[in-house]
Each structure stands twice: as structure tokens, then as C-alpha cells.
Amino acid sequence: MDITKLYPEKVFYYFNEISKIPRGSKKEEKISNWLVKFAKDRGLEVFQDNSLNVVIKKNATEGYEDYSPLILQGHMDMVWEKNKNTKFDFEKQGIELIQDNGFIKANGTTLGADDGIAVAYALAILDSDDIKHPALEILITTDEEEGMSGAANLDYSIFKGKTLINLDTEEFGEVYVSSAGGGRTTTQFILNPKTIKIDDSVLLSIEVKGLSGGHSGAEIHKNLGNSNKILGEILYHLSKRYSMKLISLEGGEKVNAIPREAIAKLNVNLDGDTLKEFEKLAKLAFENILKDFKVVDKSPILEVNEITVEELGKKPAEISQSDTANIISYIHEFPYGVQAMSKKIKGLVETSINLGVVRTATVKGNVEYSFKALSRSSVNEALNKLLEEITDLARKHGANIKVDSNSPLWEYKENSLIRDLIVKKFKEINGKEPEVKAIHAGLECGIFADNIKDLDVVSVGPNIFGAHTPEERMEIKSVGEMWDLLLKILEDYNIR
Questions:
Q1: Which whole-number Å values give the CA distances from 71 to 128, 343, 418, 491, in the listed order?
Q2: Which of 21, 54, 245, 408 is most deeply packed, by most CB within 10 A?
Q3: Which of the following is catalytic: 144, 168, 207, 323?
Q4: pTM for the complete prediction?
Q5: 2 noted as active-site residue
Q6: Tens-digit pLDDT profile for residues 427-476
Q7: Which of these, 398, 406, 404, 335, lies nearest to 188 by C-alpha position?
Q8: CATH architecture of 182-406
Q9: Domain positions in the chain
């Protein structure tokens, strides 16, 4: 399949090219160096910093020299997620692109349209000689998905522009003017391992799968099931009836993605029950939890299977019944999903939290259970309060906790020339006004606004669905529509 014949051809050409290059968060060296070479090959001024951020500058075309430079921005990294049965090495393989019913998607993996399409738009503009535009400062950041460290560590003195268009929005026809701030927490239970003893007990795996997953900010309000939380609740209900000892707990891949799968391995005393009776109770708990959480996923699955010591691998160990009860209670008490809706903007999530990743590891002879979560809010006080609650919960259960508050919120700007220009051009092209909105997700715009005085910034983009999941797909038509809008903005740009 040759996507480079789709409109706009040059945009899809570059999207295809960068899709060949591994570019996960904190794995951006190859794509960053490729971008530098792209600029040098075309005689463009280029900067690459220690965080591998890339800035490419292009002079204004004739008649646009007196206007203020325009910063166009996106991030080069992508979320690496694949279906459980998909064999794929993200560090060595390029993304396999598929054209399907008006969309571009990947074969069993994330697509990387978030935010590869921004890079493709920027490269297409830089590689063209027939596009009218002011002086351009193209900023392609690193590590947006894992903490925005690229934007945080950038030297902003290299920019002359005071106007910025972020190309990381996933709904064409929506102009974002505000975003939530975020804080990440990592909670660790460091416990003594114990040799697995099978007396009147049985080794079992309990697995939650078949969930849709999704973006932990933009889709947190959709009642999508969180496998980590659901599994924890199942264990909580089962622990009231059975004596259990955890062997391992695994779930989720990225803290900013709603987890789709989770599995617990346990040593369980059935107390006279059959395995079939245990399974029946587990599935009843599963069904009730789905109802209580109002989960909308189409095909959630719970599997209970007996396992052997040999299947657990080398040196498997369990933790005590009391430590198991403590961890299960921690997950049960852990908040999830929407915590508050905005009182100012109808329909906007104000505060939320996602328990994204759960892991079990052996560290220096101990067993470590770690829990990674991402909290978001458009109100600083609410975010700080939620992070304090998570900290208190960890300490209550005797765990260590690390808090990283790493993405500042982006406040609404009352007067915005670039917002007015985009709204005007969108209406001229489409016959209707776009929606001007705030988003409950982390965008780098807050960092930019904190570092460039009087910055005027908006965020736009084409339609992308299912970001951060293997179901991610990008609408072909909207890529062209966004390109047409972008060209019109550049042509009619008159900001001084």
C-alpha cells in the first residue's frame, strides 16, 4: 500500500518516511538525527540540543518579512503499544501502515499519528518552495508522551516568535486554547519474598483483557474500563472469601494510556471449594464491577486458569497473606477516573487520575510491587490536593512514593490574534466556525507559555481516534482539510 499518493501527497510522503524510524519516548536519537540531516540537506538553519529537541528555521517568503515569526510545533516521540499477540520489535522495526476505509492505521500496533502527523506537516512545508509564509521556527520536541522533558529542558532564547501553533490536537474543527496540568506518581511496595508452599492451596492466574484502552486524558470520561483497577476490585471481593498470597501482578504499558489488560498470579486456599466455584465467584464479581463502573467496553473478558510452579519461571516467590491483603486494599482505595468536572466550562473534565501501570520485579533479593499513575487537572489546587491524597494513601499502606509534577496547565488567553485568525480562516473554508475548547489532556503549550513571555498559542490537528492504543487510526480526509487550513493561515498571516 502506497499512502504517498493520498492528498496531500508530500505530507503523507513524510509521514510514511518517519514511520520507518523507531521513535518511542526516550528513544528518539534516530529520528532526531534524521531531522537534523533533513534540515542540513536543504540548507536550513537547525539546532539540536542535549535532549534531542530539534528546531529548524526558514526565512519568510517575499512580502512576509515584516511579520513576526511563527512557531509551528509538534513532538517526534510516539507511544509504543501493541496487541498481546502481535510480534513486533518497536526498537528495530518501522510501523506497518495500512489504508482502511478512509483511515490510516497500523498492523497491530500504535500508529504514531500522535504526533507524527505534526512532524509530517512541518517537513512538507519546509520542503516546499511554493508556499507563502512568514519566518518559520519549527520546533519538534522529545519525550512528550513520557513526561514532556524535552519541552521542559529546551533553551527558549533561540526563538524570536511570539506566536505558536501546536499541531497535537486530535479533532479537526476544534481549536484548543487551554489544557490540563499533570503529575505522575510511582508507588513502591518493597516486600520479603517467600518460597511458594502448596498445601491445601492451588496456583491460579486471574486475567482481565479485551478492554479498549484509550487516552488517559482526552478519553478518561468515557467510562472505558481500566484493567488494573478492575482486577484489583476482583481480588478485593475474592479476598473476603479466600486466603490468598500474591505471586505477581502485571498490567498496563504506559501511564498515560488507560490499561487494557492485567493479570494476577496467586496461591489460593480454596477452603473446600472447587476451582469451578472459585471461577464462578470471580466472574460474578467481574460482572458486578463492570456494572458499578458503568464500563462501556464491548468485549471485556475474565479468565481464571490453574498454573504450575514450572510455568512461573525461575525462582518464583509469593508474599505473605498480610502483605497481599495490604496491596489489594491499596488498589481498592486508589481513586480512578473523573474526580471533578469543570465548573466554568460545560462538559470539561477538571480533575482525573489513571492507574496506568502495575509491575512486579525482584530487586536485590526483595519483591517490588510498583504502581504508576497520572493525575491531571485544569486547577492547580485540585491537582496538588489529588497528589497529596495519593501520597497519604501510599504512606498509609507503608509504601514508598515518588511524585513528579511535570506538566503545567495552560491557561486561557482572553485576547489571541492567532486564535482569531484560525477561526476566521476555518469559517471561510468550511462555512462554519470551529469549536474553541479546553482539553483535559497534557499539551506542551503550558510549558511554552511559561517560558516565552506574552506567547500567543493555540492547538489544532486532524482527526485521530484511539491514540495510545493499537486501535489508533487517522482520518485521511481530515489530514487534507487540516493541510488546507494550515496553508491558508500561513498565506493570510499578518501578525506583527
A1: 17, 32, 11, 15
A2: 54
A3: 144
A4: 0.77
A5: no
A6: 999 999 999 999 898 789 999 999 999 999 999 999 999 998 899 999 99
A7: 398
A8: 2-Layer Sandwich (3.30)
A9: 3-180+409-491, 182-406
